[in-house]
Amino acid sequence: MRLTLLALLLSTACALPTVTPDAVAQPKGQEKPKEKGKPNRLAKESSPYLLQHAHNPVDWYPWGPEAFERAKKEKKLIFLSIGYSACHWCHVMERESFSRADVAKILNANFVCIKVDREERPDVDDIYMTALNTTGEQGGWPLNMFLTPDGKPIFGATYFPPDDRKIGDDTVPGFKTVLNKVMEFDKDRADLEKQADRVAKATVEALDANSRAIALVPLKRDLVSDGLDAFDIDPEHGGTGSKKRDYKGTKFPRPPVWGFVLTQTKKPGNERLAKLTHNTLAKILEGGIYDHLGGGFHRYSTERTWTVPHFEKMLYDNAQLVELYSEAYALAPRPEYKRVVAETLEFVRREMTAPEKGFYSALDADSNDKEGEFYVWTADEVAKVLGTDADTAIVKAVYGVTAPNFEDKFHILRLPKPLAEIAKELKLTEDALLTKLEPLKKKLFDHRAKRERPFLDTKVITAWNGQMIAGYARAGGVFKEPAYVRAAADAADFLLTKLRDKDGRLYRMYAAAPGGKPAPKGAAFLDDYAYLIHGLLNLHDATGEPKWLDAAKGLTDLAVKHYADPVNGGFYFTAADGEKLFARAKDSYDGVQPSGNSQMARNLLRLGTKTKDEGYRDRGIRTVKAFSFALRTAPTSMPLMLRTLDELLDAAGEPDKPAPKEEPKAKKPRKSEDVVTGKLTLEPAKGGVREFAVALTVEAPWHLYANPAGADTLAESRTEVTVFVGGKKVDAKIEYPKGKEIADKVVGAYAIYEGATTIKGRFPAGDGEIEVRVSINACKDGVCLPSSTLKLK
């Protein structure tokens, strides 16, 4: 089928962002033009991200009815591209493809092109990202999707290189090739429409998965304890990850996780958990993800040790981490926690605070079109700026300026060990070392300030400002610092004055179009209400002033009126009277930011306690119940909801589940990969072919379904092997062993693998990393774990 071939083509292109920027370096002669081209429709927008594309030769439309009406009238597919202003790969694709006349010619003649800022329209981003994930693709930005004229998703991917590229013996299709393929497939529009209907249906089902009906899962302490056990914490470098993969790969701080885990460390018997948690907090603030000169946190680490970050600085990360480290200090008053809060809030005051006292959104990762250039150093540059050998020696010792740790030539400053240990090695007290460091840091900071600065996104987003208000207020209360509380109050006054309409409803943001004055814009979403209410409640905690509680109550009542689901409980992401997309999401994932539902549940319980109003408390409990099935089946996806449930049970007087006196017992299996291990064996290439064997071991009493499984109803649950070379799926011939036959009167005879099983196969030899993926579904006695994919390299 032609769509299957295109999906393979797209998945190949989508794999490229996982490699280093050097591997997808911009071809010569395709640099961004120095002079801007003619402005397009985006030139009238206020979004900095859209304005970054305002002089592309692509005939961009902003999201709105005009684009869809044209697509329907001209019977054209829509090309939708979503990103944000601080996104490195968005910049790369803008330079490589959207600035090129030959690419624009194809797009303009055959598609209606829409650009979306995901920070302006998180509802659009969430729905189409979910659609992408339902097709089996990994999400990321830029998110590029092809849609029908009525907005249904057909297929998509993330970054595309502009032209075909040779990698070994394979050709990776470029963006122009993809566009031409889509145009070819569009000759059979009926086929594409059917594909769009399937993806749209799958998207709706995925969005409803966690709250389609209220599950009969009791709100008991074991939900909290089992949920806590489900987090796999890296014992060496901190953070969460997969023990089977040695915790390798990208790490996000995910403050909702550590906010929940931190609350559990104070409970009896959780001493080991406390050690792991504070190790995580220490490793994050010691790593390169923290800006040791200017304060503030970058977005995430690209590897296990928190050394090499993705260099954006997002308001929401810094807001939540300020609150987290303040709460950590309240439990364990370590001086480094206080220092990191003070330095981060100084960064926010200096670089992220608007004249009106609201907070800007983000700082870019790039300068001069190079990621991280503003923040990295060479050893010679450090020595030249500091001037003396003694000063240079101190800085190099403190910040690990020995071997380069970025692109083989630059240094990202980080603490290779705790500052107290470094001070001891230098025969100084920690305070004395900090005193010595201050003027040296200032020299480096002042020198850095002369470099080309990263782009500052000056949108003031209501939701993120609410989080920053919460962080400032919590820090003010913990550290007894009036200036922090005052900053939170000033920002709250600004939002409550400038970002509400005549009915008191919130706007999404405060931004200015080129040459214009900032103004409120866009309907608010659930997270705008949820996060701002959280900030106001923290302000009430810090000050005791009734006006903050009254404001929180008023916004909560509006959120209930316009966003609540009166049937199943919980809240929708968009208002009932908002723009109608092909699906209406009810967010439930506490990722780098908490979901609106988790935050609202906690807000409602806090309001109930503060006001003695059982109505708020009851709605909060109902919201937790609406997601109780997710807490049982996927607890790591909702850490803030776990924290909320724990606080609810504490308030109700339900005792904590006793912690084990001995070493923790083995965790209950949560998914199929927890009861299956795999080992890959590769033979040397012969005649252009490589043979392999995958040895699977299935823990008793679990089994896997064989391939073939026998019964038609089990076809989707069968064990299946696919092979990837250099990130591209290859045509492999797999030899599945015959399974053990089971007779069943209901489903008929079927076959299983149990114990040890070996699957063999062969594939064309090629260059690049070899990865064998094994799709498995482990079952026993009529109970099945969620399916998994083992990735063996």
From TrEMBL:
Pfam families per record: Thioredox_DsbH
Keyword Ribosomal protein: no
SUPFAM superfamilies: Six-hairpin glycosidases, Thioredoxin-like
Signal peptide range in chain numbering: 1-25
Domain Spermatogenesis-associated protein 20-like TRX: 39-201
Region (Disordered): 23-43, 652-675
Keyword Transmembrane helix found: no
Keywords recorded for this protein, A-Z: Signal
Biological processes annotated in GO: carbohydrate metabolic process
Biased composition (Basic and acidic residues): 29-43, 654-675
PANTHER family: SPERMATOGENESIS-ASSOCIATED PROTEIN 20 (PTHR42899)
Protein name: DUF255 domain-containing protein
Species: Gemmata obscuriglobus
Origin organism lineage: Bacteria, Pseudomonadati, Planctomycetota, Planctomycetia, Gemmatales
